[in-house]
Write a structure and sequence with these properties.
The model has no long low-confidence stretch (mean pLDDT 92). This protein has helices spanning 25-39, 56-64, 75-83, 98-107, 120-133, 156-167; strands at residues 70-72, 88-94, 112-117, 137-144, 171-179. The protein has a five-stranded parallel β-sheet. It is of the alpha/beta class. The protein has six helices and five strands, in the order ααβαβαβαβαβ.
Length: 189
């Protein structure tokens, strides 16, 4: 039995069977270029979050336009990106549990993988997993920006954690990560 796809290029909209992903290619490409153009020449390295599209093909188009890689929220999303050809992925969340840490560090054999830490016990677990995998894992220290969702407190606690990452044999300090959800809703910059 041949199954017809829910939508095909050129199909009238009233013939599309839902659910179906439909992309206005002109708008899609215009939006990709708009983001790249906004940061071009400003000394900013673009790393868009893939949580909306979760699609390696789109991520690779973003990289093609200058992004250094993409961000994802969890290990499974990082796997999808790496298996889809994305060579630089930052997991913008803390990874907990030996199984997930093994999966994360295994990805580092085929791509640049980085993650975040906001607690000394995470640094210990990340260092152990990276050592077991024979890699050096880039780690960002996540700093609490007032949302109290995650992150080490700013100032001395963040500095202490950064030093702990830098001193770990199988980790490298990659920088700071900060998230403040309400800041993403600003209409101007």
């Amino acid at each position: 039995m041949t199954v017809r796809p829910p939508a095909e290029i050129g199909m009238p909209l009233d013939e599309v069977d839902t659910p179906a992903l439909i992309v206005d290619l002109d708008a899609f490409e215009r939006n990709l270029r708009r983001l790249a153009d906004r940061v071009g020449g400003k000394g900013v390295r673009l790393r868009p979050h893939a949580k909306t599209h979760k699609c390696p093909v789109i991520a690779l188009k973003q990289v093609e336009l200058g992004a250094v890689g993409v961000c994802v929220q969890k290990v499974g999303e990082a796997e999808a990106m790496v298996y889809g050809g994305v060579k630089d992925v930052l997991v913008t969340n803390e990874i907990v549990g030996k199984q997930k840490l093994r999966r994360l560090t295994a990805l580092a054999h085929g791509a640049r993988i980085a993650t975040c830490a906001d607690d000394p016990s995470q640094v210990t677990a990340l260092n152990e997993a990276a050592g077991d995998a024979g890699i050096t894992l880039p780690v960002y220290v996540e700093v609490n920006m007032g949302g109290n969702r995650c992150g080490v407190e700013p100032g001395q606690p963040a500095l202490d954690l950064a030093r702990r990452v830098a001193d770990a044999k199988h980790l490298s300090f990659a920088g700071l990560q900060a998230y403040h959800g309400s800041a993403q809703h600003l209409r101007t910059w």
